[in-house]
Design a protein that fits this description.
- This protein is about 45% helix and about 15% strand.
- The protein is an alpha/beta fold.
- It folds into two domains: about 220 residues, 2-enoyl-CoA Hydratase, Chain A, domain 1 (Alpha-Beta Complex); about 70 residues, no CATH class.
- Strands 1, 2, 4, 5, 6, 7, 8 and 9 form an eight-stranded mixed beta sheet that branches. Strands 3-10 form a two-stranded antiparallel ribbon.
- The longest helix has about 40 residues.
Length: about 325
């Protein structure tokens, strides 16, 4: 008789399940305690930083989406008397049009209260460029990628694939456009026209703010808004940015034009630097996710209208 068949050594499944649940509850409790302590440390750190006169830095990296935490941070910056100016550090291909609009509106409101400068590093395209032009002054490197002014809506027609593998999609909807676009059909007719109107409306607003913020005739802004990307050097020539430079040049401009002393520290406000406890909590959380087989986070999904530039290579 094998060990698994020996009734003396057999372990009831219910007992194993109870022990497993107990271990997970303990792990969850420990993670919760660490998260609470880390959050308390975060509030303490923010409080200490906010007590000193400073230049604030807001970092916009990667795909842009709406973000209530970032929005709240920008509002706090406008209300904090110790923050003399704000540097928006950008390295992003863009993202959702709504996310870019949110940043543009929030930074425009912030600009009314204190100086805001944008610094584009490798990439400031589409919704990221929309973000940059909300600033008082826009800097980029000579070889930064700038522009890609436009809006798109992507649709995948998987009809031939579904037909090959024998899948037939059906639907019941309240109107002819309720469930459009359909995955198993090409985008055409009334459905295409309705989405084109959606894209055009967003695009017109994008062109308008480019013309307004960059002081360009609308015809010139429209000419530059065909989705093209430019280097920082060409963008300067086309008046899409104000100067070639990095954060050092941005700070020098703040001193020369807004009388902000360069001796002030530049402090990250978003995303706020992680404390040691936060790093520990994040590590524990990632290990817990791996333990249950979920793996790492998937890429951000951008729903709806998109203002995004991304190079594609085929090998």
């Amino acid at each position: 008789m094998s060990l698994s068949q020996d009734p003396v050594h057999a372990v009831p499944a219910s007992s194993i399940l109870r022990k497993s649940r107990k271990r997970w509850r303990i792990a969850a409790f420990v993670a919760l305690v660490i998260a609470v302590v880390a959050l308390a440390g975060r509030f303490s750190l923010e409080s200490n930083v906010a007590d000193d006169e400073q230049i604030a830095r807001v970092i916009i990296n990667g795909p842009i989406t709406t973000d209530s935490l970032r929005l709240g941070t920008l509002k706090k910056l406008g209300e904090n008397e110790n923050v003399t100016a704000v540097i928006v550090s950008i390295n992003s291909p863009g993202g959702s049009t709504a996310g870019g609009e949110e940043l543009f509106e929030a930074l425009s409101a912030l600009r009314e209260k204190k100086p805001v400068v944008a610094v584009i590093h490798e990439l400031g395209a589409s919704a990221a460029y929309m973000t940059a032009i909300a600033a008082d002054r826009v800097f980029a490197r000579r070889l930064s990628i700038v522009g890609s002014i436009g809006v798109l809506f992507q649709h995948v027609n998987a009809g031939r694939l579904f037909e090959t593998i024998g899948i037939d999609l059906d639907k019941v909807s309240t109107g002819p456009l309720k469930a459009e676009p359909d995955l198993d059909e090409p985008l055409s007719g009334v459905a295409r026209a309705s989405l084109q109107a959606l894209v055009d409306d967003s695009y017109e607003w994008f062109v308008d703010i480019v013309a307004e913020r960059r002081g360009l005739p609308r015809a010139k802004a429209l000419e530059l808004s065909d989705g093209r990307i430019l280097t920082g050097r060409v963008a300067l020539k086309e008046q899409l940015i104000d100067a070639i430079g990095s954060e050092a040049e941005a700070i020098a401009w703040l001193e020369a034009e807004r009388e902000i002393t360069t001796e002030l520290p530049v402090i990250n406000w978003f995303p706020f630097p992680e404390s040691e406890l936060e790093r520990l909590a994040r590590y524990i959380g990632s290990q817990a996710v791996s333990a249950v087989g979920l793996g790492s986070r998937s890429p951000i999904a951008l729903d709806g209208l998109v203002s995004l530039w991304q190079a594609t290579s085929f090998k």
